Every structure is written in structure tokens, then in C-alpha cells.
Amino acid sequence: QKNIAPIIRAEALTKNFQGMVALNAFDFSVNEGEIVGLIGPNGSGKSTVVNLLTGVLAPTSGRVLIDGKDFTGAAPHVVARHGVVRTFQMIRLFPSLTVERNIVLALQEQSGPGYMSSFLNRRNAMAWHEKAACKARDMLALFEMEKHAHKLATDLSIGQQRMVELARGLATNPRIFILDEPAAGLSPINVDRLIEMIRRMRDEFGVTILLVEHVMRVVQAVCDRVVVLDYGQKVADGKPDVVVQDPKVIEAYIGL
Ligand code: ADP
Ligand code: MG
């Protein structure tokens, strides 16, 4: 792809929870323009990786580098402002706010001090909000969710809520978008749609993607490379069709 310098890198990343090793000396990187899959059985440490990369958890040891700079232990909003954006395994929308408002809030959160300064003057604030709402609607249109813009998030199906989460993340112009099990709870048709949208986010918007996913159909359809975890240990890293035939990977899944 375009550039071979990794956007994000984990060096010997380790996380213990009360003496239990959830992630052990994990070395890993994602290059610009790649779609990398992170797979492994339940409890193998996938969400822990995501939480460590995004500042939700601090590692027991090891480092997190973004564009070669040390972000170990940085707060989630600091990491996010460097273009590392994520979704959560459990959907996190504000249920009693409209779909559009959920996206505007993410833009507000991202612009931080810039947003506050727009409040110095009422006209600036209104212009800011108008622009943000416009961006939100553009994103919703892309995900074919425009007609739901003024519904409450809670009134959407799980599939629709997942699309809103993708629209919300993409609205903040991520450099790397980390998706934690986006296919969970989706119907086969919505899985097809998800596959299409993951590809489009990379191909049309230039977003690098780290995809944590259980649904192998999605992984095989979109990933350039797949990393496999088992008991907090990396057991494979390679092309999807090679990795799924790796005896260590097969054993990790059969040993469930
Ligand atoms: P995965 O996402 O692959 O299913 P996780 O990263 O969620 O796995 O979990 C890895 C291991 O760490 C599991 O054994 C899990 O129970 C444990 N774990 C995850 N988060 C915590 C936490 N906050 N406190 C204690 N144990 C945790
Ligand atoms: Mg998980």
C-alpha cells in the first residue's frame, strides 16, 4: 500500500488482571491502508488489545506507539485526537438522543477546545452546529441511515445501531478505525452490508482498519492480514487463507 510506516504499534504489550495474564508480550503493528483482522476464541485478549491501544486500559508493561511516538498510558481522548477511533463490543450510543445528535456529540467531543471557542459568539456556535449536523447527515446517507436521523437511537434495530456507530466513527475522520466485533448480532444481509462498508471506508476514505471479529466470513472477505490470539498470546500473523489453515490456529479454535 501507500506507506509502510505503521500507524499503530504494540511492543511487548502485556496486561495482567489480578495476576491473570490477559495479554502476554504482544508485538503487533498496523500499516497505513491495511485492513487487519484480530481474531481468537472468547477470552483470548482481543478486547484487551483494543482497550490498550485506545487508552481505555493502561498496560502492565510494554508500549503503544502511534506514528512512532509513545502513547503508552495516554487518555482515550488524546489517542482519539491522533486519529485512533474505535467502536465498542457493546454498542455505546446515547439511547435517548437522536441518531443525528449522537453523531454531532462525537464531533463536539473530538474538536474539544475548538468547539468551546465557537461558543464565544452565538453566531459561530450556530454555524458550528449547522456544519456538524450537515456532516452527520452526509455520513448517515452514506450508511443508508438518513431517514433515521431524527429517531431516538434506542428505537433502532441492532443492525441499524451498528451502522450509526460506524457513521459516527467515520464522521470524526479517523486515520485508524478499530472495530470490536461489528458483526455481532447482525443478520446475514446486514453482514453483507457491513462487509461493503468496511471496504468503502478504506477504499474511498483512506481509513486504515483494525477489525476484531468472530464472524470468519467478514474476516475472510475484507482482511489483508489476520493476527490470531490464544490465551493472550499471538499464535499467527499472515494472509487470511494461510492463517485459517495453520494447525496452531485450528487447535486454538478446536480447544474451546
Ligand atoms: P476477548 O475480547 O478476546 O473475548 P478479553 O480481552 O475481553 O477477550 O478478555 C481477555 C481475558 O481478560 C479474559 O479472561 C477476561 O475475563 C479477562 N478480562 C478482561 N477484562 C477484564 C477486567 N476489566 N478485569 C478482569 N479481567 C478481565
Ligand atoms: Mg472481546
UniProtKB/TrEMBL annotation:
This is Amino acid/amide ABC transporter ATP-binding protein 1 (HAAT family). CDD domains: ABC_Mj1267_LivG_branched. Residues 8-256 form the ABC transporter domain. One of its GO terms (cellular component) is plasma membrane. It comes from the Bacteria. PROSITE patterns: ABC_TRANSPORTER_2. SMART domains: AAA. It holds the Pfam family BCA_ABC_TP_C. Keywords: ATP-binding, Nucleotide-binding, Transport. GO terms for molecular function: ATP binding; ATP hydrolysis activity.
